[in-house]
Each structure stands twice: as structure tokens, then as C-alpha cells.
Amino acid sequence: MEIKEIINQDIQIISTLKIGNFSKLPIAWRDEGNIDQLPVARYNETLEKEIINKIKITNWRRDDDILIQKMLNFQQLRSNKVVYTDEYGYVKLDKRIQQDKYDTQQLNPPKINTTWSCSTIQYPVENQTNIDGSTQKSKIVSVDQNDFKFMITVNTVCVIDQEESEQIHRVKISDQILSIVEQLQKLHECKIKVIYNNRELDQRKTFRAANIKDGQKLLFFGIKDKCNQDQKPIRFFLRFPDFNKEQQWKSVEGDDGIIITCKVDFIFLGIGLFEASNQDPGEFGIQYTIYIKDKQGNVKLKPQVVKENGSYTYDDVDEMHVFKYKFQTFPHGIVVKAGQRLTYMQRTSYQYSFYSDQGRYYQQIRNPDMNIFKIKSTRLSSGTCVEQGIIPGFLYKLL
Q1: Smallest Cα–Cα separation from 162: which of 279, 335, 396, 394?
Q2: For 95-108, how does the pLDDT look when each residue is reduced to its tens digit (9 = 90+)?
């Protein structure tokens, strides 16, 4: 069948076409999971542009062509090689325990059926151990090699200066995470952080080494002109003139929070915290949630729930029993545009702390930037509001 006949047949639209070589012959091929190159149709150079532009072609391949190509991939399997499976995640191949032979000369060759003995791979998880204090051990499982995956799908949500976009990437498990970050960094001229399970990923790791599963969602955060912004001074907005000297705040179930709006663009970098009133300074845990809406109520930054561990000393605490905490997950902060509503919610690991009930006239406090911030109460807060609470201020930079 000539290429003209193939093109003229309106049978199937191939959404993604690539140009490659198969058996030393030029062909058009498409990616289908475990199969690296599948012949679709031969082409000549004059038609190359049409093929790249997603021309309509027919799928004329025979089943035995596909099986032969699968065999080329499976022949590369060996002991200690790591592959992905839907049932067990990443596994390491130990040895073949069953293999069905077939004759490629048969008119209808049977499906390849090879079973492997594999070891599941246990990735370290913080603060998770068994009841007896031991860590989870690897298991031996049997897997049909037709269930092996060498490529996975990764969903990304990218937030750069509040411009949010979602993408789907098809990647090899042996690729570095950096492979899908570099293009965005060049495009937006910014540094991008990759967040997974409330922690920043090392972008030099492969998807396999980072235990990224098929269909996993990753969060990308970036800020433009990072170098210039890093040179700007960090400021602290104080919203209480004094603390309550007679009582202490007892945390109840639920989060404390406030709403912040500003007349100009700023970067939200951290929070002020009252120290614990019933224990010495030291390590503590904090969980916080940040989300942003514009003036029309449209969500610009979806709620981001983050858990972090911090610490403070006597030297960090001022005369109001306040210390400043800079976000670890967002070291370059979160950009908030003028007029947008930033809702911040938090809870800390200590039960009792100092607090203040003198927030009604916060606009009269002498701050570095006067009359640009407005604090509001949120009905989601369990106790903290404009007048009182355990959030004495926040860290920021002006843009």
C-alpha cells in the first residue's frame, strides 16, 4: 500500500506522532506505553511535515508485528532491573519463574506470558513504623511481565505568580524529575520547587527513586525575578500592641486563622507566633493552610495544607512572647496581588500559649508600611479573629 493511499483513508487520527527508525527503515511511529517504537506507516521526506502535523493515517499493523516489538523490549529485562506495576508500585526483578515460547512464523502467535519473581521496594516514610517499632520489609511477589510499565503518567499543577495551569506528562521512570521542570523554568525565568506529600523533592532524582506513582499529582511553585526579590528586605507586620498578662490561650479542636488583604502586591513569607506558655522553647510542629481568592471570589490559589517542624530559642522571643517563623515549604514566599484575599489557617503542637485581645486598633500600630494591609476575621477560625488570638503578625516583602 502506498503512502498516498494511507493518507487518503479517513480512518484514524493519531494525536501524537514521532519520527524514528525501525529495522533501519524510516517510519512514523507513536508511543504506546511499554512499546517504545511501533511502526504505523512508512513515509518519504516530502511527506514528513504532513505526518508531524498529525495527518490522518490508517493503522495497518499486524498483531505479530506488535508482539515482535514487545519481545525486543522484554529481552532487555534482567535481574535487579526496576519496573513499575499498578498493583505493587515499583518492584525489583529477581528471576524468571515461567516463560511461554512462541513461534513468530505462526499465523496467529500466542500472547507472551512470562512471570517474574520480584521484590517490592520499600521507600522510607517519615514517622511511620510498625507497632513493634520495626520498619516495613520488602515482599516477594509474582508478576506477569505484561503488567510491567517503563513509562508512567504524571499530573502537574503549576502555580507561578498565581497563574495556575494543569498538565499531564508521559515520562520514563528512569527520567529525572528535572526533565519536566527545566522547560517551565526557562519559559517563566524563575526557580520552580516541586512539592509531593508536603515535602520538597530533589529534582535530580528519577521518578523511580522518588517513588512517583502512575497518575500521581505533583505541585510546582515558582516566583519570577527571584534574584531581585531576594535582595528586598523582609518586614514584619505587627497587629497587637501588647499581650494578655493574666490569662493563657488554650488551643481547642480546629484551626485559628485570619484574612489578609493589601493595596499593593506583596510576598507572604511567614508568620508571627506566640510562644508556648507551659513549656520551655524548643521544637514544635505546625500545620498551616493558605489559599487566595480575587476580588470576584475566584480561587487563584487552591488550599495548600502543609505540615512542618520548627524550633525556637529564648533569644528568638521578644518582650511580647512573640517569635517569627519563616515557611520552610515556601522559602521564597507566595505572591499575593493587590486586592486579593489571602486566608491563612494554622494549628501548632503546643496546647497552651500566650495571646492578645488588643487587635481592634491594629491600624494605629507603628509598622514599616502603614495603611496598606487590612485584617479580617474568618468564620473558619476556631477562636482567633481581628480583635484577639494567637497570630500576632506576619512576615512579608513588597513587590
Answers
A1: 335
A2: 888 665 555 455 45
